[in-house]
Structure formats: structure tokens, C-alpha cells
Amino acid sequence: xxxxxxxxxxxxxxxxxxxxxxxxxxxxxxxxxxxxxxxxxxxxxxxxxxxxxxxxxxxxxxxxxxxxxxxxxxxxxxxxxxxxxxxxxxxxxxxxxxxxxxxxxxxxxxxxxxxxxxxxxxxxxxxxxxxxxxxxxxxxxxxxxxxxxxxxxxxxxxxxxxxxxxxxxxxxxxxxxxxxxxxxxxxxxxxxxxxxxxxxxxxxxxxxxxxxxxxxxxxxxxxxxxxxxxxxxxxxxxxxxxxxxxxxxxxxxxxxxxxxxxxxxxxxxxxxxxxxxxxxxxxxxxxxxxxxxxxxxxxxxxxxxxxxxxxxxx
Length: 314
What we know:
By secondary structure, the chain is α/β, with parallel strands linked by helices. The chain is built from 13 helices and seven strands.
């Protein structure tokens, strides 16, 4: 079951006695948990118990599971951090839960590690361990991230330019928690500066260096004459120019694959530019002392190639 399916089932009045919430984003797990809690209308003062494993004993959880609610339709028990329980202990806990029959609602949460190749096998094992629980797998979609960013900007009246939005979408497409932290950082800056855009973002370079690299890439691809100046301003904050090579390559390929005629450039010219970037990247990775000079020469040689999406003579 997905988060959307969970919401739909709750809205239709289908409420299960047990839920197993699985995902690598604590924000999504908490959001699903709150959705269930609000649907049940639980009085948190009397009918909500929270437990964290492995600090809590099975006996404590079981005893509360059969406790009658005081002012709510059902008592709600939340058991977090199943991921911190040893495999054998988790089997014992699952076996104890499996043999209980209660009219209350039990929510179990398991936070997966980021970028773990074994997510699917872990989900299958958990679903088999807790057959009575409705298994809800929570993961953000790219469209959801985009809508979340746009809604956040509208709701809070944030003054962000297009390049900043592009950076947020790409960098945090599978990291909602990281995106929230980044917005907190941006909002703190906005509180002081009033607005943030391509020109003022360099003040956040230490915290938003990834955005600034796209600022340089966009200036380069738009044929802006001040691109070399922007590159020089960013130098103190770049750990390596490989970061910039990556941004330029992504920008060129992204525009080449974009909408029809978004990058009107001959294939041979495009190949030449990409070959230059590959050569610079090799120099960077072999610790050449001339990488900054190579980047400057590359920008001077190619900055006028792109202008308004059209290629010009080199």
C-alpha cells in the first residue's frame, strides 16, 4: 500500500487494527502516522502511547494494547524504531504481536537506510513477520517533490528564482528531510536579506554551493558575458572544480534532451565542447595544478557559443 492508498482507505472509513509504516524518510513516516491519528480522532492526553524499541519491553506494549480507551473510539499505540532491533528479537516481538487480538490500533514504524539496495527484500521480510498489519511503503515521487516545493514557495511567499527551484528539485528529488532542512536554511537567509536570487545566492555559497554551481552553468549556457566573473567569485567555496564540470555537463545534456529546439547546436560542436569538459575532468582527477586555468580557458573559449538557446560561431 502507498501513502495515497492509505489516505483513500482511511477517508472511505476502512481502518485497520495494525499498520506497518516503512520508508527512508522520517517526515513521510510521521505524516502517515498523523493521518491515521487524525482519522481516528485520538485524544492524545489519554489514549495515545508512544514506545521506542529496543528500550521498551514486549510486556509493556502488550499490556497497553488491551487497555480500553478513555475518551476516544480506539486507543492508539505507536511503536517506533523497529530497525534498531536485532533480528532474533524482532522475530520474537513479531510472534507476540501476531497472536494478539485487540480492538485498539497499533502502528509500527521501520526507517530504512538511504540508498539501500536491499529495500525490497526488507519490505518483504517485514510484511511476512507482521501478516496482520497493513503494510504501507512510503517514498516520495519526483512530481510530489516538485509540487511540495511550489506549494512551499507560494504558502510562505518565498522569493526564489528559477535556477534555485531547479537546484532544489534535482538535488533533493529523493530526500524530503534534506529538502526541509535546506528550506529552513533559505528562510533564515530570507529573514535577513529579504530575497534570494542568482546574484545574491553567493552569500550562501558555503551552505548552498550546489546551487551556485548551477548558477554558473546557467550563465554559461545563456551566453551571459559575466560568467567568468561569477566563476571567479565561486572559487573560494568550491572543494574541486569537478563539481562545476559536473554542473556544466548536466546543464548541456539537459538542454539537449529538453523540449524541441531548446538547444539549437550542431552535434559536432556539442561533441567538441563535451570532449573539452572530459579532458578537464581527467586533469582534475589526476590532481593537475592547472585545473583552474583550464576552466578559465574553457569558459573564455566557449562562453559565446550559447546565447538564447542558439549556437554562435566559435
